[in-house]
Amino acid sequence: VITLLPLCLTRWLGKRGVLMATLLMAISPVMMHRSRFLRHDQNAIIFNLVMLIAILNYLDARKAKHLYLFAAALSLGLAAKETTFITYAIFGSFLFLLYLVQVRPKEANGWLDYPVVDLMVVMVTLLLPFAAAFPIQLLGRDPIDYSGAGLVFSGIVTGVLLMIGVIAGLWWGGRRWGICAAVFWAIFLPLFTTLFTNGQGIGTGVVGQLGYWLAQHGVQRGGQPWYYYLALFPLYEFLPILLGLGGAIWLLIRWWRPVERGDKEQGVGMSVEGEQAVEAASQPKVLLPLLLYWAVLALVIYSWAGEKMPWLMLHLAVPLQLFAGWALAELLTDDWRAIARQKGVWLLALFPAFGLALGRVARGGLSRGTSLDELGRSMAWFAALLAALLLAALIGALVRRLSARQVARMAGTSAVVVLMALTVRFAWMATFVNGDMANEFLVYAQAAPDVAIVNQELRDLSHRLTGGLHLKVAYDDESSWPWVWYLRDFDQSTFYGKAPGQPFDADAVIVGPGNEDAVRPLLGNRYFRRQYRLIWWPNQNWYMRWQNDGEDLWTQLKNPEQRKALWKVVFYREHEAQLESWPYVHNFALYVRRDIAREIWDFGPESLSALEPMPGDDYVETWVERQADLVIGGPGEAPGQLLAPKGLAVDAYGLLYVADSRHHRIQVFDALGNPVRQWGYEGSAPGQLSEPWGVAVAPDGTVYVADTWNHRIQAFTPEGVYLRSWGRFGEAANAQGPDSFLYGPRAVVCDAEGNLWVADTGNKRIVKFDPQGVVLGAVGGAGTADGRLSEPVGIALDGMGNLYVADTWNQRVQVFAPDLMWVESWPVYSWWGQSVVNKPYLAVDASGNVFLTDPEGYRVLKFSNDGELLSSWGQFGVDDSSMNLPTGIAIDAQSRIYVADSENHRVLRYAP
Length: 912
Hints:
Elements: H1 10-27, H2 29-34, H3 40-61, H4 64-80, H5 84-102, H6 115-127, H7 133-138, H8 148-192, H9 200-217, H10 228-236, H11 238-256, H12 262-266, H13 275-279, H14 287-304, H15 313-332, H16 336-341, H17 347-363, H18 372-399, H19 404-434, E1 446-447, H20 449-466, E2 473-475, H21 480-486, E3 494-495, E4 508-511, H22 513-519, E5 527-536, H23 541-548, H24 553-558, H25 560-572, E6 585-593, H26 594-597, H27 617-621, E7 623-624, E8 630-633, E9 645-650, E10 656-660, E11 665-669, E12 675-679, E13 694-697, E14 703-707, E15 712-716, E16 722-726, E17 728-729, E18 741-742, E19 747-750, E20 756-760, E21 765-769, E22 775-780, E23 792-797, E24 803-807, E25 812-816, E26 822-827, E27 842-844, E28 850-854, E29 859-863, E30 869-873, E31 886-891, E32 897-901, E33 906-910
Parallel strand pairs: 2-3, 2-4, 7-30, 17-18
Antiparallel strand pairs: 1-5, 4-6, 5-6, 8-33, 9-10, 10-11, 11-12, 13-14, 14-15, 15-16, 19-20, 20-21, 21-22, 23-24, 24-25, 25-26, 27-28, 28-29, 29-30, 31-32, 32-33
């Protein structure tokens, strides 16, 4: 449709000009590539062109029907896209400038009796209420505030502007303006209210769309520099740019120095034929200046606007292509038969060939070497030199037969032919070769090809299993776009946000990287996993560094290596990074149930084990939902509030001690969750703490704290009075390393005799101290063998004095006898990550059951004392049944379970 609308401009551009403009649009890389998308930019451009046609016809004939078409185009443009406000500003300002040129107050027309005034009145009066966002913002209010008070305020401002427009319009011309207004609102109301089903659409359409754009202007999505279009637009639309520049210069020359007297009579530089010259005589000078004004201002305004995206280049391309079409028609306007008789048409081939040969000569030279390779290069250079001389002679012979003007036209036409061929190349490469590949700069935040591939696999699988699109597919908020579109026909597709809240029963699960840690525990080992690319972005470093690193284009061009790399990017779209390892990408993972995965042929050998039970499946099968019966704390600095709580301990009186790690203090709560006391603040002096992770209470009431990043143990009275401390930073080569060395101790626990067991995490050992800090023994040391440890964190003692250790990075629980002899171990099919916060803790109840926290699995695991999984609960979230990085865990005398919900800054208590 866009390429057909220029036909309506024939009386101003001429037949040849329209043909050339249509040709430039047809081969335009930007137009061709973006036409594959169902975006609203194309609709906006269509209605903008209709408006242009209406303007020109009304200025020429001043018929009411063209004014009504103008009003319809105004309304349809608003319905298409908010960027149409920019076009309205360009057209409106041009009409005002045209009025200043045309107005003759002393003549009969006076000040107002001009067609251009009619157009301005209709535009301003109809669009006045749509500008309400400006005064609303100037008055200190939010145009997109949809609260009751906000709607009232916006309604008053909009109503005032609407009344001003109505009064002015009726004063100007009651019947004509009334019809224009009726046409405008008859289109606007049903479209913006979704056929009268959404009344709020009136407010969001009149005030909200411009208000939202003003709010988003400062966001600057993408962060592109002001010269974004200056860098990208010439990569694709170099031909219209050059023709436009040449046409503008030619237009100015003919404007000020007309070659023939007829130029002024027919219109400056316009290619009109026959009767069309007479018809266009009334408004001969409007279209070309308007197109030039439109093209230049569009570049300026879109470069100033906050969001700069490749699809917006459509709005830059259209006016430039129309103007370039006229310029190309002017270039081709000559007596071609006379040129052909003089053999001048051969110059169309000779000029490019001469340029190619000359370029080869300039890049090479005679080599002084005698190797075959060097001799070959010398011969090639010599052949290019001979070809250049021969071509120069032929060109010289032909040039003497033609006038200087004809030679200039032949040179320009041959350049256009070459550039047109290159334009077709880039259009084909962008549209049909690269397509949706991120090495193409017209691609931005676009779905990668993987999405369509996975969608087809899911459709095939669904048809095989269900006979239709009834496969259960679940997707998260990080992958919702574009999956909500691709899965629109799957009647069993579900959206689960960040986490589902319970184990999946879906056949396939789609999850983004930000949610995968929360989702993985609810998948267990029942699913196969594949990673794919979801959305990707182009490499913008080559022009972004002009702004970020202070490096300009000239610096790049002077450096041979950078020049070569830049040429590969510009001409071949070849980047240093390969598409297979493209860094500017947002991935997604597809999980497919193992028992149905073998229905997909390309899962290959993986599907052979589809029906075999996998370790860890029971982690999901034993999952239950449990609600906390008490929530203690919450984010904040006040007493009773917490910041990343870690270790927990319960004393004989039922008081809960919490290592409030990032507040560098210990807090004590009663059985109802009320704060009792606190002590400690950040520092390294006695009694001061640095992110304590562990706390324990001895039978005599002494409170021991693992002062983690002071690398020491501190002892306090139950009231928080400092007693003593021991330990200093140091790395121990093995379990029997220096007694005084500690490296980030994470957990402490007291036995019945009052001895203290410390998880010396950084030194990969457990150390046993007496109450005064004298070492009684140690076990561990780096390794994976029985008794060896890797990142030991949580420790707990059972009623028999056996020690349980969370051997985190070995993904197992190890059990040691009271004499530190190794007893047994069992695997933990979790604790996958090695982040600084994935530190699990342990607790043992009176029955010998072992409770483990799974921080990045957002759950608690309950085992028997011989490693049999009994149950699991928890999932990612903030409600009373959810957790975010659970770490410390403790059990009181009533077997109630306390869990430090670290990143929710609270402690949860569960019934036995």
